[in-house]
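quick q for whoever's on today - can somebody do inverse folding on this one?? i tried earlier but teh output was garbage lol. C-alpha cells:
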C-alpha cells in the first residue's frame, strides 16, 4: 500500500510537470490530483519537493524508454515515426496542454541535482535511440547524431505546437525528420551493398589468384618433367 501511494504521487507529479511546469507543481497539487493523505509527503519524500520531482522525471524517463522499445522495427524511418508518434499522442490527447515533464524541469530549475537527473534521462533516450538505429544499419556516429537531433527537434516541435495550439509546427518538423531518416537509411543500405560487392570482388580475386598460382605450379611441374625426360633421352642416346 505504501509503495502504491508513493507511485501515485510520483506519477501525479510527472503529469503536473508536463502540464503546468516545475513551479506550479506543488505538494498540495500532487495530493489533490492523486487523493493521497498529507501525511504521505514527508513519509515518502522526507527530503522535500526536489526528491519528489527527481523521482517524477526519472519515472517519466523510464516510461519513455519503454515506449521507444516498442517500435515495429529498427529502421531509421520506423524509429523516427514511432518516436514522433509518442509526442504527437501527448499533444492530441492533452489538447495541447501537456509536453515533456523532463524539459519542464530542465528549463526552470537551478538545482544541480535535478539538472543531473534530467541530463541522465535525456542521455538515456539518446543512447537507446542510437542503439536501435545502429541495429537498423546506421554507423555509430551517424546514429548518435540523428538520435540527438530527433530528441531536440521533437521537444522543440512540441513546444511550438503547444504555443500555437495546433499540430502544424509539429508536423512540419516531423516531415523533415522523416525525410532525413529515409535518406540516412538509403545511404546506409547503399554503403552496405557497396561493401558486400567489394568483399565479393576481393574473394573472387583471391580465388582467381589461387587458381592462377595452381596453374603456374602445374605448368612448372610439366616443364620440369619434360626437361627431365629430355635429359634421360639424351643420356640413353649417349
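ok took a stab at it. sequence:
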Amino acid at each position: 500500500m505504501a509503495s502504491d501511494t508513493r507511485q501515485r504521487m510520483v506519477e501525479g507529479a510527472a503529469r503536473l510537470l508536463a502540464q503546468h511546469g516545475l513551479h506550479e507543481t506543488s505538494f498540495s497539487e500532487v495530493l489533490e490530483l492523486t487523493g493521497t493523505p498529507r501525511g504521505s509527503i514527508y513519509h515518502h519524500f522526507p527530503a522535500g519537493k526536489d526528491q519528489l520531482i527527481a523521482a517524477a522525471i526519472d519515472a517519466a524517463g523510464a516510461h519513455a524508454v519503454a515506449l521507444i522499445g516498442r517500435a515495429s522495427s529498427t529502421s531509421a524511418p520506423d524509429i523516427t515515426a514511432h518516436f514522433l508518434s509518442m509526442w504527437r499522442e501527448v499533444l492530441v490527447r492533452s489538447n495541447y496542454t501537456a509536453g515533456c515533464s523532463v524539459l519542464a524541469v530542465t528549463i526552470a530549475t537551478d538545482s544541480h541535482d535535478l539538472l543531473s537527473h534530467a541530463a541522465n534521462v535525456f542521455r538515456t533516450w539518446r543512447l537507446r535511440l542510437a542503439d536501435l538505429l545502429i541495429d537498423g544499419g546506421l554507423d555509430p556516429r551517424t546514429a548518435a547524431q540523428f538520435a540527438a537531433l530527433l530528441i531536440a527537434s521533437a521537444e522543440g516541435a512540441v513546444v511550438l505546437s503547444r504555443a500555437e495550439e495546433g499540430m502544424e509546427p509539429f508536423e512540419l518538423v516531423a516531415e523533415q525528420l522523416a525525410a532525413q531518416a529515409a535518406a540516412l537509411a538509403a545511404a546506409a543500405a547503399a554503403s552496405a551493398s557497396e561493401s558486400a560487392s567489394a568483399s565479393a570482388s576481393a574473394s573472387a580475386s583471391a580465388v582467381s589468384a589461387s587458381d592462377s598460382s595452381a596453374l603456374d605450379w602445374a605448368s612448372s611441374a610439366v616443364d620440369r618433367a619434360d626437361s627431365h625426360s629430355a635429359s634421360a633421352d639424351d643420356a640413353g642416346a649417349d
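fwiw The CA atoms of residues 126 and 148 lie 6 Å apart. also The longest helix spans residues 168-237. so keep that in mind when u check it
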